[in-house]
Amino acid sequence: MAEHKKVEKIVGVKGMNDILPEQAPLWEIFENTVQTVLKSYGFQQIRTPILEPTALFARGLGAVTDIVEKEMYSFTDSMNGDQLTMRPEATAGVVRAAIEHNLTYDRPQRLWYSGPMFRHEKPQRGRYRQFHQVGAEALGFTGPDIDAELIMLCQRLWDDLGLTNVHLELNSIGDAEERNKHRIDLIAYFEQHMEILDAEAKRRLYSNPLRILDTKNPAMQDMVSQAPQLLDYLGEVSRAHFEGVQSVLRHNAIPYKINPRLVRGMDYYNRTVFEWVSEELGAQGTICAGGRYDSLADMFGGKNMPACGFAMGIERILELMKQGGEIFASNQCDVYIVHQGEGAQMQAFVAGERLRDAGLDVVLHCASTSGVGSFKSQMKRADASGAAYAVIIGEEEVRQNSAIVKSLRSEDMENNQATVPLEGVAAYLVDQIVGEDEHDHGEHVHYHH
Fold it and tell me: Which residues contact 449 (CB under 8 A, 6 or more apart)?
C-alpha cells in the first residue's frame, strides 16, 4: 500500500494579512463613511494600477528616501526587462495618470483613491507590508483655501467615525529656494554636533538632512530642538500662504498645533504639511498625513500642476474605531431559511428569491459535509448567522403552501412565530422589519429601504 505523503501547509506572506469575514463590517463602516464624506466635498474616484514603473517612485519620492532605498518591492519583468515596483504610495500614480490623460486640461480636479500599498517594513502594530490607504488629491489648485478644505474634510471624517482622540499638527516647509537656504544652515549646524548624531543621521546628513529633524532617538532630541527652523526662512509668499491656511481653520474652529519639526518623508512636498496624530497607537501615532506638492508634475515631465493631498492608513484608523468600544455587529443576513425534505427545499428556493426581490439579505440553508442537518442543527446555524428572522418550511408547510416565520431576537418566547401563506412571507417580513426599524433606530437592519 502506497504511503500517504503529508503535504506541507502554505501560509500567507509575513506582514500581509487576511481580512476575515468577522472583520469586514468594520471595514465596510469605514469605507462607506469615507466615501460619503469625500463625495460631499465633490471628490471623484480614480483607480490606478498596483504596478508602476520603478522610475516613477525613484524620481517622485526622492532616491535618498527610506521608501526608495529600503522598502520598495521592485523587480525586473521577466517578459520584457521593464523595471517595475508595487506601489508604496498612490500620489505618484495619480499624478502620472493626470498627466497621461490630460485630466486638468480644462479644470482643476478633486480626486480620491483607495487600495493596498506595499512596503518591505518590519511588521508591527498598525504597520504592515501590505497596508491600505484612502487618499485625496486636489490637482490644479494654487491657493491656501484647498489646503484648508482638505484638513476640514479630515475633521468631518473623524467626527462622523466618532474619533475624538485625534489632533492636527501643521507646518510650512516653504518653497525650494527657502528650503535650500535652510538646508545649508542645517547641515552646518549638524556638523557642529557630529558626536551626537547617530549612524542613521550621519548617513542622511548630506543627502536628506531635513529628515534628521524627524528622529525618534531620545539622545538627539535636545540638539535637534535647537536646530534652525524652516519657519524662520519663509519668504513673504510662503508666509502669506501659511497664514491663509490657518485663517480658514481658525474661522471654522478647527484646533491645531504648529509643529516646526514636522517634515514629510517624500521629497515632493512644499509649503503646507500636516499630520493627524493619535496618542493611542503607540509609536505609530500618525493616522493621516499630507500637504502641498506643487512641483511633482514637473518631475514627471508634465505641465506645471499645483496640488495638495493627503493619505490615511486604514488599519490604524480601524484600531482607533475598535478602541472607541462600539460593537460592530457582523450580521450575515436578515433572514435565514430552514427546510426539511425535497419539496420543502424547492419551496425554500422560491421563498428566498421573493425575499431578495423585496430587498432583504437572505441565507438559504445548504448541505455541508455533515449533510443538510436536522431542524435543530439548522436553527443553530440560523441563530449564529445574526439573522433577525428564520423562515421554516417542512413537509406540512409544503402541503399547506405556507411557511413559519420565527423571530430569532424576540424577548417574548411565547409569541415569537407565525404561520404565513408562502406568497405573503415577503410582505409580512418587510412589515415586521420596517416596523422594528422605526421603533428602534439603534438596531442595524439590513433591509434596503
Answer: 359, 434
CATH superfamily of 24-174+234-323: Bira Bifunctional Protein; Domain 2 (3.30.930.10)
**Residue in 27, 276, 6, 22 with CA at minimum distance from that of residue 164:** 276
- Per-residue model confidence as pLDDT tens digits over 181-217: 988 888 888 888 888 888 888 888 888 887 788 778 8
pLDDT of the residue at 445: 38
Q: What is the pLDDT of residues 177-187, one digit of tens each?
A: 888 898 888 88
Taking residue 240's Cβ as centre, other Cβ atoms within 10 Å add up to 11
Q: Which residues, listed in sequence order, are joined to residue 185 by a DSSP beta bridge?
A: none
Residue pair 154/288 in contact (Cβ under 8 Å)? The answer is yes
- CA dist 375 and 379 (Å) reads 6
Q: What are the residue ranges of CATH 3.30.930.10 in the chain?
A: 24-174+234-323
Measured between alpha carbons, how far is 326 from 302 in angstroms, rounded to an integer?
47
**What number of CA atoms fall less than 13 Å from residue 244's CA on the CB side?**
15
CA distance 332 to 362: 8
Reduced to 3 DSSP states, what percent helix, strand and coil does the chain have, rounded to the nearest 5? 40, 20, 40
DSSP state of 248: H
The span from the CA of 362 to the CA of 351, in Å, is: 10
Q: Do 109 and 99 meet the contact criterion of CB atoms below 8 Å apart?
A: no
Angle at 101 between CA 98 and CA 106, to 5 degrees: 80
Average pLDDT over residues 324-342: 78
List all residues 6 or more positions away from 291 whose beta carbon is below 8 Å from its beta carbon: 147, 173, 264, 269, 270, 271, 272, 273, 274, 308, 309, 310
The three grid cell numbers given for residue 353, joined into one nine-digit string: 428569491
CATH 3.30.1490.100 fits 335-439, yes or no: no
Name, in order, each residue with C-beta under 8 angstroms of 105's C-beta and a sequence gap of 6 or more. none
Question: Which amino acid makes up residue 89?
Answer: E
Under a CB-based contact definition with an 8 Å cutoff, are residues 127 and 121 in contact?
A: yes
Residue 19's contacts (CB-CB under 8 Å, 6 or more residues apart) are: 27
